[in-house]
Request: fold
Amino acid sequence: MAKWLDRLFGRSDVQSKPLDVERRFMGLSLVDPELAKAWGINVSLTDVSPRAAMGIATFFGCVVTISDLIASQPFGVYQETDKGRRKAKDHPLHNLISRRPNRSMSAFIAKRTLLMNSYYYGDGIAVIKRDRYNRPYEITPVDAANVTILEDDETGYLFYGVASPTGVTWYSDLDVIHIKDYTLSGLKGFSSSKWHAQTLKINLAAKGLQQKTLENGAFANGFISSQIGANRSEDAKLYKQRVIESLNDGSGIAVLGGDAKWVPVTRSPLEVQLIETLSRCDADWHKVFRIPPIMLGDTEKQTSFGSGVEQMFIQVTNSVLIPKATEIEQEFDYKCFRTDELASGYYTSINFQNLLRGDSQARAEYYSKLGMMGYVTQDEVRAWEEMGPHPGGVGADAWIGQNMMPLSEAKDILKGKYNGKGSEGTGASPGGSKGDGA
Reply:
């Protein structure tokens, strides 16, 4: 186990280098622990490390799904101005977080690495390197297993020791991006595999039992009963050898003594129910991560078609992805912008528009309503759909629903309309002159 985890779990000694994870195997006896040992299943040892958790398919699937969905969304720098929000592509940080944070990683790989460490170990760590203007020019995620986190008792500041083949390099908390899994102290994260260690033990027990069942034939369909005495072991071995030979040669016919007979083994309802429970025990991780089974490819209870799945994705985006993205945005804002840049309205944002926009019919209705009310222009809608603007700038105007008139000319058109009908309005007609109405 990494040395920083020793500090995390309250041990006083800090190792000079990360320790290898001790790998242990656990199985489960349905009836008798002694019988399990005879099958080769060790029920006394359990590995509840993060590495073991990632061996559970549902745990791994939830971690990868959340990490990939967040990492694949556009992440950039924006600025609030008097004219509204603008994408600040000219800011140096924008290129780092949207394209290439360091020489070795793309933006996607860097974000996914940061998130997977957060879920795997409880802490996702990235080191920031700055230029002479105190602006980041490189952001590099590191394996949290190689990080020691220490807290100054007097100031409360955190310091991060990153181990490498050449030694340990220490960084202040302002030079480290720190994404935490769920935490009670607010200083260090705690992996879900630790919060739900008991669930993980059951998962490992089920996996161990399945493995040993396949390897050792833990569940026998029956046995051969004979009058062979206890002191006639050679005769018993001969019976067994004949049965095995009959199976190997494909005949399925074994010649035994006249008193031998096959006795089938039946399981009690309790054992059958327990087997069924173990086969589905990893479904608890769906509740832990709040990821529906359909998102991991499990279509047993949910079809992969229809608006219900789309609503499910929207729900996951709002309840799981956006809260985690908010933590990332706030951490990058605080660690990567100078005070004067924050005062100028700079901030980072992860855009989930692609996951929230729904199907084509719903988007068309939404865009139509926005356009009819003059909230957006046609070019803005086309940009959301990754299309270029209309040629000649004809899509740059906003329109409202009264005969789809441009906002810039709405007052003149309405005045001319009322004047032409003999209404109270005395304004100019569309041609600009007074009294031209019919």
About this structure: Residues 222-264 form one domain. The first helix runs from residue 3 to 8.
